[in-house]
Amino acid sequence: MAAHDGDPVDDEFDGPSKSKLKRDAAELKDLGDELVALPPAELDALPLSEKLRDAIDLAKRITAHGGAARQRQLIGKILRKTDVEELRGVIEERALERRMLARDFHRIEAWRDRLLAEEEPALRALLAQAPGLDEGELRKLIATARSEAAAGRPPAAARALFRRLRESLAAPAPTA
Known about the structure:
The protein contains eight helices and no strands. It is mainly α. The N and C termini lie far apart (62 Å). It has two domains: 64 residues, Orthogonal Bundle (Diphtheria Toxin Repressor, domain 2); 75 residues, Orthogonal Bundle (Diphtheria Toxin Repressor, domain 2). The protein is elongated.
């Protein structure tokens, strides 16, 4: 059936599709799940309304599966009335900070493992990269850590070596 020239068109756009609304609601529910998973100290740093914070705290206490699901749905509903862009920005910033800390941790761990495995070539490479390190202290820690590993003792010196490397090599904390 064709539309006539003078007839109004029934297919006018009335707003977002039902599918888009469902996707948006699912995204907000996922954001709510992320918020529920955060520790209290991180929640304190976020710009949350009192109503949203109370709902999140309650969701953390609910143990019944059905009740927890309903509470997460409520959190999603509250988020629909909240400016979530600022919230997402803060959460993404904190996630980036955690990734940077993990990257530094793995880089320092790799240096420690390389020092214990290769000793002299790795020590030369490290001192070339970070000339401020105390070569004598590092040699002593490496020798002690290697002897502990050979004797099957707990790796106290390897941990001390890691701490010393972290003090010297860790990237400075980002400032806002």
